[in-house]
Structure formats: structure tokens, C-alpha cells
């Protein structure tokens, strides 16, 4: 069976995490290429994973079955344009993890009927616990879809979207989402400190409660509403706290927050497409 050659352009936080995930998954190191302007980053990757490295993007994609663009969104066009000819000739699968860069913009910069998968991972991908949404354009074959999915699964869970527009909602939910949970944990820790707990105790109990709740929700398969009901005894302490949150319209706040983030994602995508 042919083992795909995967070339990663941009060996920063995300690019390096993907390489680490792929190696952990058993992808052969000689079938991985990383390109980056920083010799230091490349040396680190070479030492740690023994993959192929180069500062020349064109060299990195010479034999690529898949090219992953892991550069900053603002750098995308500048990085893609010099590779346009080779990509148009060879038609490898192009995976973009750049936030807010639409498939139509990439297609326009690459100037061909390129198979493109857009991926929207989130920061926990850096520790192998990401949540990634994928969208494939019509030129992507079934085996390329499977390949893209297996690559992103190396750094967490993966879902597919049929409509690219939903990427803006994903950005608002899981893309920005870690910050919402950090804020909630910060607020809970502060509230517990106000009620007398030492900082470190409040922090540890907050974090472990968040982790435990997420794991219970994932592992039980029960709906979130049902899980909440199960831990909310009538007349008990949880019921009192939940009623304060509901009376203060926590649901409406989250709706407004996600709507604002989605709108901003749409605005940024339009701006980035003009670069
Ligand atoms: N980090 C996240 O949690 C996260 C989440 C979702 C999506 N993303 C997306 O992932 C992409 C990468 O993010 P990141 O956090 O990994 O950024 P990063 O750490 O800055 O990595 C980007 C890398 O690309 C390199 N680069 C710059 N110009 C290049 C060129 N011409 N050719 C090849 N490489 C070049 C950069 O080198 P220099 O540093 O020398 O410029 C850097 O090493 C972004 O588009 C972002 O939207 C990231």
C-alpha cells in the first residue's frame, strides 16, 4: 500500500503538533516533510522526529501527496503563489488549517481545480486534544477525505461539514471556545476564593470539576440536559445555583456571544480573501 507523503508548510505551533501527532500515529518519518524559514525550528524537528526538513517550500512539496498549509492566514497568499504551478500540475490534496481563509480564496491563489480540505482546529490540538471541523471541496476524492480525516485525528476529534459557511459557526464555538471555558473557570475560581478557599485549592477543584464534567459527558453518551438534571436534586444546593444562572439569562448571553464571534469570523474571512 502506498504511504502518502505529507508536506507541512509552516512548522510553528500547529505544524509541529501535527507532525508530532502523525509520528505518534505511526506515520513513517521519511514520508514527512516540514518547511519553515526558521533553521532552529527545523533542526528541532529533525532531531526529535528525524523527518525531512527544508527552508525551501518548493522542495518540500516535490513528492507530496498532501500539502498542509500551517502558516498564519496573513501569509497564506504569499506562501501559496510561488507553489501554484507545481500544485496545478500535480494536483496533490491541499489541506489548509489557516483560520478564516475560504476555499474560494485558496482556489483563486492556486488557480486550478485543486482538491482542497479546509480544517478548523482549536488550541487544545497542541496537546493532542483538539476539536477540528473539516470541509472538502468537490475535487477531493474519497481516499483524500479519509487521509485528511486521519491527519487531523492525530491531534484530536474530527467532524465533517457539508456547508463551508458553517465554518464561521465552528470558529465561534470550538475555535474560540477554549477561551469561554477559561473565563468560566476563572470566574468560578474567583467566586470560591471570595467564599474563603485558598487560591490553589479553588484552582485545583475548578479544573478537576471541569475535566470531570467533560469526561462524564463524553463517556456517558447521556444528553447534557439529562446529566444536569441528575446532579440537581430538588431543593438542593445545585438547584439554587442553577436558578441564579438561569434567572440571569446565561443561555441568552451564550447565544449573543456566539453570534458576535460568528459575525466577526465572517468579516475577517472577507478581509483575508482580499489580500
Ligand atoms: N495555534 C492554534 O491554536 C490554531 C488554532 C486554529 C487554527 N490555527 C491556524 O493554524 C495556522 C498556524 O498557526 P500557528 O499558531 O501554528 O502559527 P505559528 O506558530 O506562527 O506558525 C506558522 C509558521 O509558519 C512559518 N512561516 C512564515 N512564513 C513562511 C513561509 N513563507 N514559508 C513557510 N513557513 C512560513 C512561521 O515562521 P516565522 O515564525 O519565522 O514567521 C511559523 O513557524 C494559522 O493559520 C492559524 O490560523 C491555529
Task: Please characterize this protein's 3D structure.
With 275 residues, the chain is an alpha/beta fold. It is built from 13 helices and 8 strands. An 8-stranded mixed beta sheet has the order 3-2-1-4-5-6-7-8, with helices on both faces. Helix 8 crosses helix 13. The longest helix is centred in the last third of the chain and has 24 residues. It starts with 5 loop residues before the first strand and ends with a helix. The model has no long low-confidence stretch (mean pLDDT 96). The protein binds NADP nicotinamide-adenine-dinucleotide phosphate. The site of NADP nicotinamide-adenine-dinucleotide phosphate has 25 residues, from helix 1.
List keywords for this structure.
single chain, 275 residues, alpha/beta, Rossmann fold, ProC C-terminal domain-like fold, 2 domains, 13 helices, 13% strand, binds NADP nicotinamide-adenine-dinucleotide phosphate, Pyrroline-COOH_reductase
Short structural summary:
The relative contact order is 0.10. The chain is an alpha/beta fold. The chain is built from 13 helices and eight strands.
